[in-house]
Amino acid sequence: MAIEGSKQQVLEFLRRHRGEYISGEDLSRDLAISRTAVWKHIQSLRQEGYRIDAQTRRGYCLLATPDCFYPEEVTAGLETAWLGRTLYYYDEVGSTNQVAKELADDGAPEGTVIVAECQTGGRGRRGRSWISPARKGIWFSVILRPRVAPAQAPQLTLLAAVAVVAAVRERTGLPLGIKWPNDLLAGGRKVCGILTEIKAEIDAVEYIVLGIGLNANLEAGDFSPEVSPQATSLYLELGRPVERLPLFQRILSCLEKWYERWQDEGFAPVREAWKEASITLG
């Protein structure tokens, strides 16, 4: 959901003056739109979750932004150079990996990210379903075009695990363990899954779609009885909800850092970091 033209301008103006009151007259004049248009955009932004206060003779003030993955919010605080700079957002999608594969086949650039609030057909390894309820997790896929032989492609799964472990620890303090080959555990239960899908020739990778599903704020009742004994969430482990947006941004930053290091230095640094977090070695 990209915010259209003049509404995006209103949001960016308020963001630049966050915590300050800006009159409707100033917004109208500086953005060259009518005061009626300003008012309508403010109402629309409020409906999307932006907390905007309005006071007579003072104007409008942006108090808080929603904990969501609107492209404008993701890119506003993103520290990456290229990963996530092209981003597709969906309220609901069957599978972010499926969308990513279609985009990759159409030539989408490396670093393109597809993120959804809800997946109706999320998949794990071996085609198993992945519970992806709305606004409670971080469900996304990344298109990558690494300079590696197809035989090296599985290394990307471990690289992604290392990146998520680092990001979660930095943002929440919670240590995660990596269970071979693609599960991350917290308190002995699965909190994150990674699914990589590759398109390659005999000697070259065309692209890899890296899918990550992280249970951020799921509650016990969100899991089916069959899954519940083996699954958990950051919320359940920490006893408090986590802000998904800054965590998502941090995951993208860590992923870019580790991916570039893998491309420049090979698998050795990734292997060492994976060993430190692995709960299946030895």
UniProtKB/TrEMBL annotation:
<keyword id="KW-0067">ATP-binding</keyword>
<dbReference type="GO" id="GO:0005737">
    <property type="term" value="C:cytoplasm"/>
</dbReference>
<dbReference type="InterPro" id="IPR004408">
    <property type="entry name" value="Biotin_CoA_COase_ligase"/>
</dbReference>
<feature type="binding site">
    <location>
        <begin position="95"/>
        <end position="97"/>
    </location>
    <ligand>
        <name>biotin</name>
    </ligand>
</feature>
<dbReference type="GO" id="GO:0005524">
    <property type="term" value="F:ATP binding"/>
</dbReference>
<keyword id="KW-0092">Biotin</keyword>
<feature type="binding site">
    <location>
        <position position="119"/>
    </location>
    <ligand>
        <name>biotin</name>
    </ligand>
</feature>
<keyword id="KW-0805">Transcription regulation</keyword>
<dbReference type="InterPro" id="IPR036390">
    <property type="entry name" value="WH_DNA-bd_sf"/>
</dbReference>
<feature type="binding site">
    <location>
        <begin position="123"/>
        <end position="125"/>
    </location>
    <ligand>
        <name>biotin</name>
    </ligand>
</feature>
<keyword id="KW-0436">Ligase</keyword>
<dbReference type="InterPro" id="IPR004143">
    <property type="entry name" value="BPL_LPL_catalytic"/>
</dbReference>
<dbReference type="InterPro" id="IPR036388">
    <property type="entry name" value="WH-like_DNA-bd_sf"/>
</dbReference>
<feature type="binding site">
    <location>
        <position position="190"/>
    </location>
    <ligand>
        <name>biotin</name>
    </ligand>
</feature>
<feature type="DNA-binding region" description="H-T-H motif">
    <location>
        <begin position="24"/>
        <end position="43"/>
    </location>
</feature>
<comment type="function">
    <text>Acts both as a biotin--[acetyl-CoA-carboxylase] ligase and a repressor.</text>
</comment>
<keyword id="KW-0804">Transcription</keyword>
<dbReference type="InterPro" id="IPR013196">
    <property type="entry name" value="HTH_11"/>
</dbReference>
<dbReference type="InterPro" id="IPR030855">
    <property type="entry name" value="Bifunct_BirA"/>
</dbReference>
<dbReference type="GO" id="GO:0003677">
    <property type="term" value="F:DNA binding"/>
</dbReference>
<dbReference type="GO" id="GO:0004077">
    <property type="term" value="F:biotin--[biotin carboxyl-carrier protein] ligase activity"/>
</dbReference>
<dbReference type="InterPro" id="IPR045864">
    <property type="entry name" value="aa-tRNA-synth_II/BPL/LPL"/>
</dbReference>
<dbReference type="Pfam" id="PF03099">
    <property type="entry name" value="BPL_LplA_LipB"/>
</dbReference>
<dbReference type="GO" id="GO:0009249">
    <property type="term" value="P:protein lipoylation"/>
</dbReference>
<feature type="domain" description="BPL/LPL catalytic">
    <location>
        <begin position="75"/>
        <end position="263"/>
    </location>
</feature>
<dbReference type="GO" id="GO:0016740">
    <property type="term" value="F:transferase activity"/>
</dbReference>
<keyword id="KW-0678">Repressor</keyword>
<comment type="similarity">
    <text>Belongs to the biotin--protein ligase family.</text>
</comment>
<dbReference type="GO" id="GO:0006355">
    <property type="term" value="P:regulation of DNA-templated transcription"/>
</dbReference>
<keyword id="KW-0547">Nucleotide-binding</keyword>
<protein>
    <recommendedName>
        <fullName>Bifunctional ligase/repressor BirA</fullName>
        <ecNumber>6.3.4.15</ecNumber>
    </recommendedName>
</protein>
<dbReference type="Pfam" id="PF08279">
    <property type="entry name" value="HTH_11"/>
</dbReference>
<keyword id="KW-0238">DNA-binding</keyword>
